[in-house]
Amino acid sequence: MSNEAIEEFGMAEFNQACRESVWTYEAAWREMTERMAYWVDLDNPYVTLHNDYVESAWWALKQMFDKGLLYRGHKVLPYCPQTGTSYSSHEVALGYKEVEEPSVYVKFKLSDDDASILAWTTTPWTLPGNVGLAVGPEVTYVRCRIKEAAGEAWTGAGGADVGEEVILAKELMKEVLRHHVDIIEEFPGSSLVGRSYEPLFPEAVPRGDSTTAWTVLAADWVTTTDGTGVVHTAVMYGEDDYNLGMEAGLPAHHTVGMDGAFVAGTHPDLDGKYVKSCDEAIISLLSSPGGSNGTGPQSGLLYREKAYLHDYPHCWRTDHPLLYYAMDSWFVRMTAVKENLLKFNDQVEWAPDWVGEGRFGEWLRNVKDWAISRERYWGTPLPVWRSESGEMKCVGSIQELQDEVAKAVAAGIENPDCPDDVDLHRPVVDGYTLLSDSGQPMKREPFVMDCWFDSGCAPFAQWHHPFDNESTFNASFPVDYICEGVDQTRGWFYTLLAVSATVFDNMAYKRCLSLGLI
């Protein structure tokens, strides 16, 4: 269901249906598990929707918050328009597929010159959001003049007329160009920095107060391993793009909505259409005489189209391609505990041992901050309340929530009752308004948490730690043994360790048997 459909149906009704659906396959799961002779304590399962479990998960997140490991950021994340949520790096790793898609070499015509800078992209849908071009300041570039028409070997859309001039990295001329050319001059990328060019889609992105929009920028991460040595920069649709854009003062404007469709005002031929279905439309616009902006050369603004075979991330839930999309999100600072993750992993007895040292160890050595919030309705709510001025409180228990609600009521803020058995799910918790230290109202951040965070809390949340069953928890943590498929090196094996390392400064399990997949 889409977010709009859920809102129309009713969040409370939707979440109740989710609650009931949890038990749909319980009998079938029990029967299959017993037939496999797979020992699991089915009579004492941990149930992540129970209040006790949610409260323990809230407590764990509060520990991270108090340690400075939880932060709110605006970051480019893998996003699925169909589910309406972003994904963490370990979720993305579950859904890569090999796909063939069109890549394009585009002409960006200089504003004060007839020459065009060539840039390559494998995501044509990001071109309406282009606001900059990145070059390597130490890379050698050439200005070339087309001296004769392309031969019969030319295939696909695009082209260039005799006499046109293009700029690209010298090292990539042979790979990119399909015309015979004369080299007019050579120069370092630094000499291109600051030059302006004409926007491909002039109405798509407002300039605002940016003085650097549609100019060439220096970036030391630009290489000549592929492409043209020039990187097209769409601030809202790539991590490097976003970082460069923020540093250089480029406009930060979405041309794509949360539904995955181009927003109104991008271009009449694109507005309202799903971006991954618009590649051919964009190629057609670029190829037309004068190009998509009408001011390019007669041959258009597309130099060349090439099929590109690559591994691309897909949603592990819906199987749709993900979009890299700048959005507000909450993160756990896993990079701050990287050394502890590696240390605790070294203490685990792995079978086979190459999984722990190789596959899992390599994952930990390249660990990224965990994008923990999700734009969903059903799940463990993120227990963070925030004022309009940015003051924040993280609530770690029902008692703490009751205390904070009481403070707000005493200050004159209306709130519903908060009983001992309050449902810790949406929409109930959304109804509470808390009070900041400066006396401002605080609303809950409208996110639920990554379901993998729930599973990572299992060693303690199943016992309602730290609120109950202390002796049981102390006797069973870290757990002696876990067993799952090898794919869980980027799933449960990781989240168990991630939560325990950040909350307890300890390992989560002593032994791990990693099974193969059939």
Structure in a nutshell:
With 518 residues, the chain is α+β, with helices and mostly antiparallel strands.
Distance from first to last alpha carbon: 32 Å
CATH arch. level architecture of the largest domain: Alpha-Beta Complex
Helix content: 25-40%
How can the largest sheet be summarized? 6 strands, mixed
Low-pLDDT residue intervals, each spanning 5 or more residues:
none
CATH fold-type name of the largest domain: Isoleucyl-tRNA Synthetase, domain 2
What do we call the CATH homologous superfamily of the largest domain? Answer: Valyl/Leucyl/Isoleucyl-tRNA synthetase, editing domain
Total number of β-strand segments? 22
Number of discrete domains: 3
**Overall 3D geometry?**
elongated
Strand content: 15-25%
How does this structure look, described?
The protein is an alpha+beta fold. The protein has three domains: 133 residues, 3-Layer(aba) Sandwich (Rossmann fold), CATH 3.40.50; 216 residues, Isoleucyl-tRNA Synthetase, domain 2, CATH 3.90.740.10; 63 residues, no CATH class. Helices cover 26% and strands 23% of the residues. The protein is built from 15 helices and 22 strands. The strands form six sheets. A six-stranded mixed β-sheet has the order 8-6-7-4-3-11, covered by helices on one side. A four-stranded antiparallel β-sheet has the order 2-1-12-14. Strand 18 and strand 19 form a beta hairpin. Helix 9 packs antiparallel against helix 10. It starts with a helix and ends with a strand. The model has no long low-confidence stretch (mean pLDDT 93).
